[in-house]
Design a protein that fits this description.
2 domains, 17 helices, 6-stranded mixed beta barrel, two-stranded antiparallel ribbon, 424 residues
Length: 424
């Protein structure tokens, strides 16, 4: 008796899809297999969604922090060396003549204790000219209360909104500043204590800055910190924050005196390096969720192959090839992975687009403040989806899902019809 003839159908033919999708619809005796498939689908969905959300939040967190930090501190700080920095106006003029520099201004900076009848806090006082502060969009564009109209005309200051809340101050109230660098007397240096009117209150959205910065007129800051005729440095903003080497060389060539140039990467190197390491580690850890779900696909398909061994044997005796059997079970497992991946993609995108609203709802439900500004520096939860990250997550999930189906499908194709039907 001759062996049954076999013929290979066109890959992924209609009957292969029909059988694969029928195997996904469980009957009563196959309910346990269906439960495993459901958990696999759910695991891949949650894994992909979680990865997309976490990557988006990490990207948004870095972008927001970078914009806030560079918006307030500038891309470069230029300071004089060898001699006192009395020629800061000449240096400013020389730097402003460099192509690509959009803003440069001198400043005086010092630490002080801010006091009010309610509380006391350490602050960083920065002296700046009124015209420069009005062009300083991080501050001038974010004044929430009061204005900059009288800044520079009298003894008034502009403070951050969190500092105002902590000290219980409003526009027009008095803020007392206490500096240890006061008047020099025969008995030593005495602290300088002076009260200033609050002209304006700003909010840039970064709690550390909103609660620590006080802006004072440039001349008043020179007098307050005993820096008459001097500047602490020159703040420089450029068009391209990534081209720091080119701008550094131009400034060294343009300024006609010895200077020390400090760029934003040097001042924040440890912080942003830590963010990048955390982002990569989180990606690797959360990938394990997708990997576990893919392992569930292997176990579910393996049990399905065992349960369908009689069907496989009949198909083989009717002429189905090993490759056709393998494709049938590959489609079955891959369908779970593809469906879970794209469901996770949809969930992740929807959550990212509405993440701040979701945070507020969860905060109200739990009665706690999720994403506290004091801990995370920002007043809102940012999310910035990157096409490259989303594509990488989807591709990784699909590849893991496809790889997970290969072994069970291969086992199904290798099943011997004679052995499978011997005891039927």
């Amino acid at each position: 008796m001759s062996a049954p003839s076999t013929y290979d159908t066109k890959p992924f033919a209609r009957f292969e899809w029909m059988l694969s999708l029928r195997y996904l619809r469980a009957r009563r005796k196959e309910s346990f297999i269906s439960v495993i498939a459901g958990f696999s689908l759910l695991g891949i969905t949650l894994g992909v969604a979680t990865l997309i959300i976490v990557m988006a939040v990490m990207n948004g967190f870095r972008t927001e922090l970078l914009s806030k930090i560079l918006g307030l501190n500038g891309h470069f700080i230029v300071q004089g060396i060898d001699t006192d920095f009395t020629d800061f106006d000449d240096v400013v003029g020389q730097i402003r003549g460099i192509e690509g520099v959009n803003q440069a201004f001198p400043y005086v900076e010092g630490q002080a204790l801010a006091s009010s009848p309610v509380n006391n806090f350490g602050v960083l006082v920065r002296g700046i000219r009124r015209a420069d502060l009005e062009n300083f969009q991080s501050i001038a564009g974010n004044v929430k209360l009061g204005s900059l109209d009288n800044f520079g005309d009298g003894e008034g200051v502009v403070i951050g909104i969190r500092l105002a809340e902590q000290l219980g101050l409003r526009v027009g109230d008095k803020l007392t500043l206490i500096s240890p660098r006061g008047a020099v007397t025969p008995f030593g240096t005495t602290p300088r204590i002076k009260a200033y009117d609050v002209y304006g209150i700003f909010e840039i959205g970064m709690s550390e800055y909103d609660g620590a910065f006080v802006f004072m007129p440039f001349g008043e800051a020179q007098a307050y910190f005993n820096q008459d005729g001097l500047a602490t440095g020159v703040e420089v903003f450029v068009d391209d924050a990534d081209a720091i080497r080119a701008y550094r060389a131009r400034m060294q060539d343009a300024v006609e005196r010895p200077i020390y140039v400090l760029d934003w990467t040097q001042r924040n190197q440890t912080f942003f390096s830590a963010l990048e390491v955390e982002r990569n580690v989180m990606f690797l850890i959360l990938t394990l969720i997708v990997l576990v779900a893919a392992m569930n696909i292997i176990s579910g398909l393996h049990m399905l192959v065992k349960d369908k061994s009689r069907d496989i044997a009949i198909l083989r005796t009717m002429g189905a090839t090993r490759r056709a059997i393998m494709r049938i079970f590959f489609i079955t497992g891959a369908s779970i992975g593809v469906a879970g991946t794209f469901l996770g993609l949809i969930v992740g995108v929807v959550v990212c687009l509405n993440i701040e609203g979701i945070r507020q709802v969860l905060s109200r439900i739990t009665g706690t403040e999720l994403f506290s500004p004091e801990l995370y520096y920002l007043s809102r939860l940012p999310a910035e989806m990157n096409f490259g990250d989303v594509f990488s997550v989807v591709l990784m999930a699909l590849v893991l899902s496809f790889l997970a189906t290969l072994y069970p499908a291969w086992r199904a194709a290798r099943l011997d019809p004679v052995e499978a039907l011997r005891y039927e």
